[in-house]
Amino acid sequence: MDLEKVARYVEKVELFNGLTPEDVVKILSKGTTMQCVKGETLFFKGTVGNQMYVVLGGKIGILDGEKCLATLSTGDMFGEMALVNKEPRVATAKALEDSKLFVLSESTFEYLLTKRVAIRILLNIIATLSRRLKASNVK
């Protein structure tokens, strides 16, 4: 994988903040990417999951019924709470346009990551969740 391209992911993808391009190459090589078409549902509210996603291209809607809670685009992550708390999903995720996603499962996460990388990723997830909580309290 082209390290220059990976360096751009490190800058744009919040999940990868603080990691080296070499760390990101390892993560990307062990995870999977998927294409989804506009209108495709990735998961439904209330289902239990063990995967998180990073938007590599396109737009994903996070929905509660018909209400759009958030629109995510390149660099944004979602579904990370499934890796952290193993509880049912709190919203539905649906492709708002054709999209490309990086998928990281719990088993890959645990197998792949050194303690240093795992701690950095967990800190990035916590930072994302904290910002989302703060933003929801402002509304």
Could you explain the architecture of this structure?
Strands 1-8-3-6 form a four-stranded antiparallel beta sheet. It has a four-stranded antiparallel beta sheet with strand order 2-7-4-5, with no helix packed on it. The mean pLDDT is 82. Strand 4 and strand 5 form a beta hairpin. It has helices at residues 3-12, 21-30, 81-85, 106-112, 115-138, and strands at residues 32-36, 41-43, 51-57, 60-64, 67-72, 77-78, 92-95, 99-105. The longest helix is centred in the last third of the chain and has 24 residues, at 115-138. It has five helices and eight strands. Helix 1 (3-12) crosses helix 2. The protein has a single domain (31-133), classed as Sandwich (Jelly Rolls).
How many helices in DSSP terms? 5
**What is the count of β-strands?**
8
- Provide the spatial order of strands within the biggest beta sheet: 1-8-3-6
Task: From the 3D structure, determine the CATH topology.
Answer: Jelly Rolls
Uncertain stretches? none
Classify the helix fraction into a percent range: 40-55%
Overall 3D geometry?
globular
Q: Beta-sheet strand percentage?
A: 25-35%
**Strand-pairing-aware structural class:** alpha+beta
Quick structural summary:
By secondary structure, the protein is α+β, with helices and mostly antiparallel strands. Helix content is 40%, strand content 28%. A hairpin with a 2-residue loop joins strand 4 (60-64) and strand 5 (67-72).
